Every structure is written in C-alpha cells, then in structure tokens.
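Replying to the earlier thread about multi-chain prediction with a worked example.

Input:
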Amino acid sequence: MVTGRSEETSGRIRLGMVGGGNDAFIGGVHRIAARLDDKFELVAGALSSTPEKSRESGAVLGLDRVYDDFKQMAIREARLKSGIEAVSIVTPNHVHYAAAREFLKRGIHVICDKPLTSTLVDAKKLVKAAESSCALFILTHNYTGYPMVRQAREMVANGEIGKIRVVQVEYPQDWLTEQQDFKQAEWRTDPERSGTGGATGDIGTHAFNIACFVTGLKPESLAADLQAFVPGRRVDDNAHVLLRFEGGARGMLWSSQVAPGNENALRLRVYGEKGGLEWAQEDPNYLWFTPYGEPKRLITRNGAGAGDAANRLSRVPPGHPEGYLEGFANIYSEAADAIIAFRSGNSPDPSVIYPTVQDGLNGVRFVAACVQSSARNAAWVKLE
Amino acid sequence: MVTGRSEETSGRIRLGMVGGGNDAFIGGVHRIAARLDDKFELVAGALSSTPEKSRESGAVLGLDRVYDDFKQMAIREARLKSGIEAVSIVTPNHVHYAAAREFLKRGIHVICDKPLTSTLVDAKKLVKAAESSCALFILTHNYTGYPMVRQAREMVANGEIGKIRVVQVEYPQDWLTEQQDFKQAEWRTDPERSGTGGATGDIGTHAFNIACFVTGLKPESLAADLQAFVPGRRVDDNAHVLLRFEGGARGMLWSSQVAPGNENALRLRVYGEKGGLEWAQEDPNYLWFTPYGEPKRLITRNGAGAGDAANRLSRVPPGHPEGYLEGFANIYSEAADAIIAFRSGNSPDPSVIYPTVQDGLNGVRFVAACVQSSARNAAWVKLE
Amino acid sequence: MVTGRSEETSGRIRLGMVGGGNDAFIGGVHRIAARLDDKFELVAGALSSTPEKSRESGAVLGLDRVYDDFKQMAIREARLKSGIEAVSIVTPNHVHYAAAREFLKRGIHVICDKPLTSTLVDAKKLVKAAESSCALFILTHNYTGYPMVRQAREMVANGEIGKIRVVQVEYPQDWLTEQQDFKQAEWRTDPERSGTGGATGDIGTHAFNIACFVTGLKPESLAADLQAFVPGRRVDDNAHVLLRFEGGARGMLWSSQVAPGNENALRLRVYGEKGGLEWAQEDPNYLWFTPYGEPKRLITRNGAGAGDAANRLSRVPPGHPEGYLEGFANIYSEAADAIIAFRSGNSPDPSVIYPTVQDGLNGVRFVAACVQSSARNAAWVKLE
Amino acid sequence: MVTGRSEETSGRIRLGMVGGGNDAFIGGVHRIAARLDDKFELVAGALSSTPEKSRESGAVLGLDRVYDDFKQMAIREARLKSGIEAVSIVTPNHVHYAAAREFLKRGIHVICDKPLTSTLVDAKKLVKAAESSCALFILTHNYTGYPMVRQAREMVANGEIGKIRVVQVEYPQDWLTEQQDFKQAEWRTDPERSGTGGATGDIGTHAFNIACFVTGLKPESLAADLQAFVPGRRVDDNAHVLLRFEGGARGMLWSSQVAPGNENALRLRVYGEKGGLEWAQEDPNYLWFTPYGEPKRLITRNGAGAGDAANRLSRVPPGHPEGYLEGFANIYSEAADAIIAFRSGNSPDPSVIYPTVQDGLNGVRFVAACVQSSARNAAWVKLE
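Result:
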C-alpha cells in the first residue's frame, strides 16, 4: 500500500549552513527538510553575518563547528578530512553569489535558496562558477518537490493533455497588504538585498519556475505591469504578467503580496489540445485532470491514478496529507541521491530531478525582464 | 426567515420576443427568466429570420401573435391597444441594433441580450436610439443579477474592503476546444454575426461587465493578447488582458473557450486596502469575504451576513441554492419594476438596478480595444 | 450542447391551491415550481383557513376563483366545465389528508407537500383514498427532482457501484438552534399540526426518502435516538437513526435542526461492492463517483458523464447552476407529463417518475418508527 | 509571522524501537515523527519478532545496538549508562502489552502505537503497569497532534460553541473493500493479533478518541451495529455507533474500511448551543467555526483566528500546509517536552498534552463495548 521514498541512513551527508540563524525563517525549514529523510547531518555553520549571532545560533543547534563567516568556513571545511560535503545557503538574496562561489570553487556541493541572486550580473557569474566547478548546484525551488507537481509534469510529458495552449499561474499572498517592519518583510522589500523585484522575485519566480517545470515549455517573452501599492514600498508588491512560449502557447502570471485572504495560494492551471490539469499549493495532495469531454478526475498522491514520478516522492498512504516540509524535503532527498551518486563517480538515476543553476538564472532573468518591461509600459521583453 | 423578492402578479407586462425560435438556446432562458416571478406574459413574437420557423415556434409556444419579421411586429404591436409593452431581443449579435431601433422608436421597452451589438458603430447608434427614446433599455448581463454579486457590489460601495488595488476576473469555458459545427458554435465564431471578438465578445464582455459592476471602477486602458488556437477559427478563442482603472487599480482578465475542465467558470476576485472578496458563478450562493488580518468568512445568500442588496433578489432560504435562471430572472424582475414605475410616470426605487445601453457600449468598446491592442502586439489602448 | 427539458406550453394544466397564503413559505415555492416550465396555470385557490386571508392572498395572486375553504373549492371546481384539473396542497401537515380526500374523490389530481400526513392513521386513510380514486397523487419530495439525484439512481440501477453495503444520509439545519416564534417554526414544532416527529418529520423524511429513492433498497427496520435539545420543545430537533435494509445493507441517518453552520445540508453517500457515490443538496449540480481503485470523478449536470435520467430534467448547460426551484419544478413537470398522459388515457413515459402516496406512507411510518424506537431506548422497530 | 514550535537540539533523547522492521508501515512514520523536530535520536532496536529481520533492518537504519527481542533489549538498555531513555512500540496490537511492561518496569518511557492492546484484559494490566512505573506512557493517537484539532479543543474549552449537544465523527476508508492479502491488511483483519474489533479497533478508536479529546465530554454508553461485509472477514469492516455522553450530548460514529472513494476521511463535527466546529483530517490546516447566526469562518493554522494551542504546534506560515507527519511529530514533541521535564524532576508545562494509557484503555473499552453491543443487536452498553 505504501510506496515511495524509503529511508536510507547509512553514510549521512555532512552538511553545513550559511545563514539561518535564530530569527531567520527559511533556515529552519531547510534544516527540517534536510533531516526528514535522514540523509544529511548538519555539522557546521556560519549562521549569521554577525559572528556573535552565528555562535549563539550554532550553540542552540548543537553544531560541531561554528564559523564567523562563510569564507572562513569554506576554507577550513575544505581542508578537514571529514569536512562538509555540501552547504545550504539560506541568506538574503544578495549574499548568495559570494557565498556559493567560495564553496563551489572548493568542490563543496551547494544547496541554495531562491531566487538565485539579487542581480542578473551575479546570476551569470554564479552560473559560470557552477559550471567550472565539479560540485553540484541545487536550487530550492521547493514547490517542484511536491509529488503532484511531478505527477503533472509526467502527464504533460506523456502527452495526456496534448499540445499546450494556455498556462495560468498565480501566487498571491496578503502578508504585505500593510507596511510591515519585521525582519522577513524588511529585507524582502529592500532592493539592495532582495533585488529589483519584490513580489516578482520572492514569489513570482516560484510561479514562473513551476510553470516551466510542469509544462516543459520554453518562455520566449513577457509583458509586465508591476505595482508598488503600499506607500513608500521600493519594490513591486503586485505583478501582472503576460507570457509567450516557444511553439505558440500563451500564459498569464500573477504574483501579489497585497491580496487579502490569500496565504500562499500558488496555483497552476495548464490547458492543452486534449485536456487540462489544475493544482494548488494549499491543497497539494490532489491533482485535477480533465481529459476533454470526460468528467474531471481527482488524482491523489500515492492513490489511484498517481504514477511513478509522484509515488517515488511519497512517504505515507493517500488521504494522509503531506505538505510543504515534505515537498521541501524531496528537493533535499533528490540532492542527496545526486550527491551519493557523485561520491561514487556516477550520475544519479534519471528519475532524480532538482532545480539547477540554469533554472536560477532563468528566474533572475524573469525578474529583470519584468522590471524592464514594466518600466517600458509593459512592452514585450525577450527572455533571451 | 425567508426574505426577498415577492410575487406580484397583477397586471403582468405584455412581452414580445425577437429571435429565440425552436433551436435557439438563449431564447428559452429569457422566457423562463421572464416567467419565473410572474411579472411578464409573452404574447407576441418574431422568433426567427425565417418566417416559417417563426410561425412554427410561435405555435409551439402558444403565442397570441406571431410575425414574420421584427419590423412588422414593431409596427403592428405599437398600434394595438393591448400591444406589447416590452420586447426581448435574443437574436445573434449583428441583428441587435436594427431590431432594437424599431421598438425603441415606437416607445416599446427593449430587453436585449449581450453583447450590445457586433460592431462599435452599431453600438454607438444604439446608444443614440435609446437616448432619444422614452422607452427603457435593459441589457441582460445576467450575472449582475446574482444576489451575491449584488452583495459584493454593496460591500465595495460601503467601503468594507477599502480602496481597491487589484481586480482578477476570468471566464474560462471548454466547449470550443475542438472545432464545432452546431448552431450555437457556428454563429458565435463567425465575425459577421458575432463581431470581431470571439471569446472576448461572448464571455469576455461578461467578465469585464461584472468587474466594473462590482468594483464601481472606471476602466482606463487595456493591453490584450488574443489567440485563435483552433485551426481555421476566425475569431479569438482565448484572451489575456491587462487592465488599468482610474485611481490606480490594476486588473487581469482571462476569457477562454479552449480550457478543458472549465464549464462556465466565471470568477471575480477583488482586493482592496482593507480586505478581499471572491465569488464564482458555478457556486453562486456564496461570497468569500476576508477582512485583512481576520479569518475568511463565507457569506451565504439570504443567510447571516447578507445585506439588503442581495436579500431583495432572493427567493428561498439559505442552503437552498438558487442558480443561473434565478439570476437571469432577477434582471427581468428589475426590468419589470422599472417598467411598472414607468407606467405611472415614476422612477423606479433606487435599489432597482439593471445593465444599461451604456454598459453595452462599454462592452463593445472593450471588445474593439482588445482586438486593436492585440493587433498592435498588446499595446495599451484607451477605453475612451 | 443543451439537452433536456423543453418547454411545452399548449394546453396548460389548470391548477388550484390549498394553503399558501401571503405569509406562507412553501406555497410560493410551489407556485414558482408550477410556473417554471409553463405547464400549469394557477386559476383557483383556498389559500388560508381564514376566509379573509384567502381572499386577500387570492387577490394579490390575481386568481380567477378564490374560495373560503377547500371543501367548497373541491365541490365547485369539480362541477365547472373548465375547473381545475389538479390541486396543490401546501397546508400544515395535519390538514393534508382531509384536503386531499375532497379532491381525490372528485377526480382532481393532487400534488401534496410532504410529509404525507401528521399521523399514521391519516396516512393509511390517504393511501386508500388515493387508491380508490382515478386521479393521480404526487408527493413533493422535491429533492428527488434534482437531476444528479436521478443520475445517482440510474447509476445504482445500472450496477455501477455494485451491490450496496452502506448508506449514509444526513439532513442537518440550524434554524431551530434557539427557540423561534415565527410562523414557520411555530407549526413545525407543534405536534398537533406537524405530527409526532419534529426534525424527523420535517427533514428526516426527506433524507429517508432520498436514500430509498437512489438506492432502490427496501428498509427493514430502524433504531432511533431522538432528542429535543431546546428547552420546552415538544418534538424532536435532532435524530440519530440506524437503518437496516433488506439484503443486508446498513445505514445511518442524521437529521437535525440544531447544528449551527448547517443551512440545508442534505447529503447522501452510498457505497457498494464496486464503487461509491456522493451528493450534496447545497452543491446539487455535481455527483462524485468513485469506481473502486480509480480516481474520483466529478459528474456534472448536463455535462460529460451525465446520462439520460439527469439530462431530461436539465434546462441549461453545465456550469450554469440549477438549484432548488428547478429541482422542485422537475417534480411539477413530471406531474404535468403524467397528467397530460392521463388526459388522453395513457400511461406516462416510463422515464417519468415522481414520489407517490406510498412513498408518503413510508415516510410517515419512518417517523412513527423513530418515535416508537426512541421511546423504547432505541430498540429496533420494523418498518412493516 | 512564523510562530510555533522551535527547534531544540541539545541533548536529544535516546530512543529505541520495538517493531518497525523493513516491511512495516507505521514504524517508518514513527521514525520520521521522532526525527522531525530533532528531539530524539534512534539508537537501538528490536525491530522484528524474527531476529534475522531485526538485524537486517537495524543495519539499514544504522542503529548502534540491535537486539533479537524486546525483553533482551529492555534488560540490557536499562543497564547501560547511555541506554535508551524511551522506546517506541510499533508492533501489531497483541504485542503492545508484553513489550511495554518490560520497559515500564525498568523506568524507560514508552511511546506506544494505538490501539493500546488487542484485549481488554491486557489493557487493564497495561494501565496498572504504567501506573506503577515512574516512567511516562504516551499513546500515539496521532490525530490529536494536528494543530487545528488543538484549536478546536481550546475553543470548546473556552465556551465558544456553548454547551455541546451533538457530536458527529466518522472515519471511512476504502482499502479493504475487497479481500487483501498484503501484510498491513493481513494482521489487521486477524482477531488474534488485531483484537476483536476490525475497523472499530484500527480507526474507530481514532474517531472515538478525537471526539472525546476535542469535546472533553465523558462517553456514557453506546449502541453499535457492526458488519463484516467482505466474505470471510473475521472482524468488522464497517461500524455504525450511537453515542451518549454525560450531560446529555449525543453522538454518531461511523468507521468503515469498505467505503470506496474514502482514503482516510476522518472528520469531526461538534455542535453546541452557541456554535459549531468542523474539521477534516484530509484538509487538516483549516477549522470551520460558525458562531450561531453569523457567517462561517475559516480559521487557518498559524493564521488569523488561530490561538496558542494550535500555534505552539505549528512550524511554517499559514498557507504552507503541514500534514500527517507533522501532526504525528507533534505527539513526539509533546512526549519529548514531558521527558525533558522528567529528566529534571519537573512536570511539563501545562500546555503539553499527549494521549495517555487511560485514553488507551478507553479506546479498548470502546472496541469491546461495540462488539458486545452488536452481539446483543445494538443494545446499549455502558462505557463504565
């Protein structure tokens, strides 16, 4: 009855972390995700840009080795016999490139939070750094780790909805409806640290990424109308985007942080010549599938109608919901499988999939194109 | 417990119909809508452009007087002592103007299906004809007759969601996913009869109308990317539209006839500085209301939380669903109330609301602007 | 695209009404239901037990003939050349028998609200009266008029879920959570007028009826635990019932008027050896069907997957909701079809189905058995 | 924005496991649950009743110490300086008592899967064993770990729905609709290993437990109609139960393993004099709350309207779903908090709650009473 991801515990991967100190949100999520399937062991960290905070946080987490900064950490860990094999980078966006570079050039695998960087220049440099490194680079576009997102991707690839015509993707939130001063809000609305995109960078990139991931379509150009509704806000908090894909498919993308009643309402709908697929992050264990002219079908995670791509990432029976942390953990598990294969000089099994540095570059390009298009009154901008 | 619309049967309004013969769809809907609250009596018709069909259909319906064409009908009914007081025009779009004109100029009230006309030129002429007539003109943008749409409008007007920032409206269908040859599909995809807009005209106008009706916002300009996905189709079957409103609100509008799994999935979401509202035509008895920072609330038709604007259009207790025909009948009932007031030289009660010829012109302008914008690669086009 | 019920207007059936004066609820529903498909014309009434009220209400409705009491009406109408062919009885329950008898014995068809009567003695007498009359007797268990209830019944009959094992049916409301003094509440909680069952009679009978209608199972016995939670209430306001059917199927039935958050939440779930069906009155255009081991399917009224039994009772395309009034009107339309066949001495088409006097007796027996079982501490009571 | 459970990693609790070898389902769930919040470290195990399997499984899991049987494990671990502090017992039901006893009498805390035991005799002995031990006993009625179940409990305790009248609880599944031969199905349908209850014991106990947990009501008696629908099945696969609680509240409980279309559809609805609450395990991040006479409100985990009892068990922001594993982990986290307090001789904070051995006894009594009542034709049986 229960299929899917098994526990493998021998030889946990030694993991470090950059960022993710006491008052950070996403660092804790990465730690749970790394721990869930027991494939990683967190042993070292440079958990804050303030050395004292780093030490305090390291003590709370019981880390073996705590560093004052990421460069020091990269240098020393690379020399240790049992130094870290991989590092999670969970800092604000503008630090991603500098931190990742230090580890990549020393052959330490990087698991990096999204968006890839705060600037397009940095993103391109990071792609080069990753390409010239033997180490792996994994970007945590975590929503691609949801089993039913994999299911949707597999069904599209299998031709079950035919040639795609229309892509509707949206990610509305409401937490920035009013001016907020707490830490999470503060750096995310500061263009120096977050990048020129606000909602666009923080959540629009997720929407863009998942749309491309599921459809397999190559985006060609976009037209964007960005707004900063909250007085004084320096980055967009609402974005309306038209998309054109190679081959003629068209899309709409909406990301917002000012839509009261929406928590994390990422939703993807894809329509092809033969059928439609609909998925929502807030109800992630279900995928609606309509073969044109037939009744809608509700495919459930690990249940009837679910295929290999979804089942290999499931842990518990259908009807027992898995959620955000499990989806995030699936990215870590994929990373672990790739690293374990890497250890022995092999490529991972082809079923192992994770977002790459190229996906990250695409995301930063998306943000840059949105900003550029909006500045030109929503003119079409090519996505290279 | 039961509030709302009461039956008033004395002095039913004598009604005629143009179009709506045997094999038409919307004619039957108009007849049920006119009958539901017992305020109209259908007595005459020119039910088809083919005289034989008109006579056949008239016999089936048991009409008192059947005419070969609408002009003849207008002339003769205007002369009868107990001739029709109002006429429903339910022909294909390109006939609306010519038919309506004949009745308006003879002082017979017109209840006309949407979109107003198939061309902008006709629409402007029809506005003039209506303005120079003493008779009333009612456009059946029927979705504005749903009680919870009225509820949403009332709440916006009362400031319950604050100044509006974002409007998301969509109307996807799937019935034209493949080439169709039956009558309903045939004239709707013929630009000569339907107008230059396909999905845009047939359902996009509904979406546009309901967004304006609920928000009270004045649309300023739009940018549209229209597609005709089905090979050989001469009008759009999918439209992606960006909207800008006076005062700074922004919107997205999607209408599609090629989205498998969508039947008549008109949905409106409006977000303001203080809260959000969400309504879906396929589940019309409910309105989601989120005051920012509080739990979502489900307001039900005729139930707790529903106000006067909704309750006066309700017939049965909450939990007993009312649907499409009841919403359509509400437009007829509003029309009847206005006509009854007109009989005695009065204005109707201010709570009586129905879509006007000006709303119709706005809809045709919307279609024209979409087509124009799309032809210019989604450049912004003003909505006058 | 649009299938289903067509309008037939020639020779409307002349209808009378007993009860249903100004301040009644269900009378208005019956009138709309009778009018919707244009098969009846209301021409006479004895609308209240108070002659003045009857006359007032008759004037408001514009009736041709208004009577002071139902007996007078039955006698005179039977003598008229164009007297009523059918009568709707919409009084409180305790009047049903006496009124129905007068019309039945004069050959006037009776359309009677449920439950059949307030006592088992009356119910049995009414069965006799109906059986010895040439006239038809139709009971408005209106929920059996919903197209998707017909769909469920057809699927069960076709063996699509196999031999039935479990039936779960419930009808919770909340409107009697506190003591209420208005008219609807008042007679419904008076055992003299409502019968010995409260919630059991008013809504439990609907739940019981729909379960039997859809499954085709014959109930064998029940065990009931009834409560009157609101202080001073003289009839049950909450009922928990275990059911046993011939052939071994088992069921649970819950009816309540004290369940806050429930409006008219009638819901039926049926499980067999091969699959399951689920339907809810508040979302009536959909039927969930799960063939065991396959994904759930959502069958929509008039849409893909819907069969003849549902489609012949549909008026508008899928995605345009039909509701309570349309379901109620379907019972009237079935009655009309039967009466029209009767006029010419024929049996109606076998697809014409309506609840009969025998169904009514079964409902009253159900109430009596619930009361008896509860008085015996939920001992099993046979349903004859 | 993010509140709730923080990570505490210093001094992980040393944990052993009895059962949970390679091909078991629930063992893996317990291990993830123990690991999620990083408060336990699994170091020892007797993972199977077959020594070879135990050793194999231990090797896969990388355990420090693997034993051939639980008694040997209890004896040796108790003597080790750094032996286990707690043990998870995840064997089939009939082994629970014998295993738990060995650890309890040596002062090792026991975390035991439900139902408590396979017989009432064993259950009573286990209560004694727990009461006479200084060690803690935690029963994994995991659904009580869902934050919104805690929310519901808190709201009931705060009087937000008033005095409770009606409890509706159900747990339908469909996986035993047909005869199944795999391991999970096999022991669960064997009365020697599972106990005399089938669905009643496996899932009915969960439904019963959660109803009591949320309402705080004391069940007084029940009447049960059990069925074994699948030919040859030796325990019930469907149970219909009426409940009476002290103080006059009444309930219905349905548990089934033969209801196609239901995966793990545990659902609880509670209605009081002032309002209603509704929660569903398959959509666990939401709680519906209806204050009588007001619109329904949707309270979301960690979102607006959620209180301390729920928020302290939440990890991620609202709209990012937590699921079954997180709820299960909450029980482990509560256990950890209690064990950590125990280490220093303290009682845990009063907000720490977990199911106890007494809850376990109540569950076994529930099963025994169901079986007894059903054997007596659904006569009422007292729950002591």
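Residues 1-6 of chain C have pLDDT under 50 and may be disordered.

Feel free to reuse this layout for your own posts.
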